[in-house]
Design goal:
Elements lengths: L7 H8 L3 H9 L6 E2 L5 E2 L2 H15 L4 H7 L2 H4 L2 H22 L2 H17 L1
Antiparallel strand pairs: 1-2
Helix pairs in contact: 6-7
Length: 120
């Protein structure tokens, strides 16, 4: 997968999306930008293609959940993109696990997630 060094400003210009829409799609785990040392989102050309596809589906009336289904990770992203996506999902999941499970269960579930990420 290409370098993730494209700024939000360039992504907005190339996709026609607003910053708010892009942040929302990131929050909904539809796109998986990396972060700079200053915590700014950094995108690749593949991310831009994915955002254009998301925009096209939304414009045609698809809901967010339908877009997620349509763009399932294994079918749309290359191996490196899946790994990045799984790490983001694991981080989000770790935050949720903290409030849902006792420490012993949380530790076990975190190990399972780590195993799945390493397999990818």
């Amino acid at each position: 997968m290409g370098n993730k060094n494209i700024s939000m400003k360039v992504v907005k210009e190339k996709t026609g999306l607003t910053s708010r829409q892009i942040r929302y799609y990131d929050k909904m785990n539809l796109v998986f930008p990396e972060r700079s040392s200053g915590n700014q989102r950094l995108f690749s050309e593949e991310d831009i293609k994915r955002l254009k596809k998301i925009k096209s589906l939304i414009d045609r009336g698809y809901t967010i959940s339908a877009v997620k289904e349509k763009l399932k990770l294994p079918h749309f992203m290359k191996k490196q993109g899946k790994k990045s996506a799984l790490k983001k999902i694991k981080t989000d999941g770790d935050r949720r696990l903290t409030s849902l499970y006792p420490v012993s269960d949380r530790s076990f579930l975190a190990k399972l997630l780590d195993k799945n990420i390493k397999k990818e």
